[in-house]
Amino acid sequence: MDCFYHEHTAAVGSCRACLRGLCRRCAAELDGGLACTGRCEPMVGAIVATLQQSARYQAVSSGLLGSARGLWIGLTLVGLFVGGFVILWGLQLPYYRELALLGVPFLALSFISGRLAYRVSARSARTEPAS
Ligand SMILES: [Zn+2]
Ligand SMILES: [Zn+2]
To answer: What is the predicted pLDDT for the residue at 125?
Structure first.
């Protein structure tokens, strides 16, 4: 491949924006690749910035998913602990065993957040949205 701007000069690479062949004299080396000097430099800069931004966004969103999962797992454990404790405590009371029923909403909460934690982790493992 020859340089697009200089005939009979071998290209060292191609511009990231317009894909033309570039020789050593024409190529501007940017962070994310080569660009036509004075022509495509802003364009390639924008392309690279967009790519980096989307990569950063993906990292942030998967981090959010991970922390949401931790939150749901924490809620599950707290619900199980509190619900179990209230039920055991209520059953030990001689006359007010109905108080044990107060533990049921906590167990339901832990059940729901356990399911959510499972769903969140399944979604982040497969990367495609759950149907
Ligand atoms: Zn170019
Ligand atoms: Zn050239």
So the answer is: 63
| Contact call for residues 35 and 27 (beta carbons, < 8 A) | yes
**How close is the Cα of 18 to the center of ligand 1, in Å?**
4
Which ligand is located closest to the Cα atom of residue 12?
Answer: 2
Cα–Cα dist 43/17, whole Å = 6
| Ligand lying closest to the C-alpha of residue 24 | 2
| Ligand closest to CA 27 | 2
Q: What is the 3-state secondary structure (H, E, C) of 56-81?
A: HHHHHHHHHHHHHHHHHHHHHHHHHH
Distance CA 103, CA 91 (A): 11
What residue ranges of the chain have pLDDT lower than 50? 130
Q: What is the pTM of this model?
A: 0.48
Cα 51 to averaged position of ligand 2 atoms, centre (Å): 27
